[in-house]
Design a protein that fits this description.
Low-confidence stretches: none
Helix content: over 70%
Strand content: under 5%
Distance between the termini: 49 Å
Order of helices and strands: HHHHHHHH
Shape: flat
Structural class: mainly alpha
Number of helices: 8
Number of strands: 0
Radius of gyration: 20 Å
Length: 147
């Protein structure tokens, strides 16, 4: 439905780098939302109530009280979502394709290499694993660090 409307204005998204971003965002956003919802559920209700009693509105409470408390969780969720998007294969392949120098991501490069050079595919897979592992380690140590 949206594609037909956009094509009337000569806007094509499929098989472009924008399609890669949309596919990765679509697949990884539930991970970020889950982290954020869990963090917001763990904020004591007393903080909200105290803020409201002092005359602060809902938006200001969120921006000046809640988000500063959750800044680590917000960034950790973003990094975790990025790590998930980094390994995305299916939605990217279907929506953006596997076009060299346009839409090819690391997982698609591994897929392409699997057909020709299994050792190189394994090497690229290890690099992807190491990037993800290092980023997870950084997030874990950052979250565990005391302020």
């Amino acid at each position: 439905m949206l594609g037909a409307t956009l094509s009337q204005f000569q806007i094509n998204i499929a098989f472009t780098s924008i399609a890669v971003i949309i596919a990765q965002f679509y697949v990884s956003s539930p991970f970020y939302i889950q982290v954020l919802v869990t963090a917001l559920d763990n904020v004591p209700k007393d903080l909200y109530e105290a803020s409201y009693v002092l005359g602060v509105g809902k938006l200001e409470t969120l921006m000046k009280v809640i988000l500063p408390m959750l800044i680590k969780v917000v960034f950790a969720g973003l990094i975790m979502s990025w790590i998930r998007a980094l390994g995305e294969f299916g939605a990217t392949m279907m929506f953006a394709g596997n076009i060299l120098d346009q839409t090819r991501t690391i997982p698609l490069q591994v897929y392409t290499l699997m057909q020709a050079d299994i050792k190189m595919a394994a090497a690229v897979s290890v690099i992807l694993f190491l990037i993800s592992f290092i980023m997870l380690g950084i997030v874990k140590s950052w979250l565990n660090k005391e302020d």
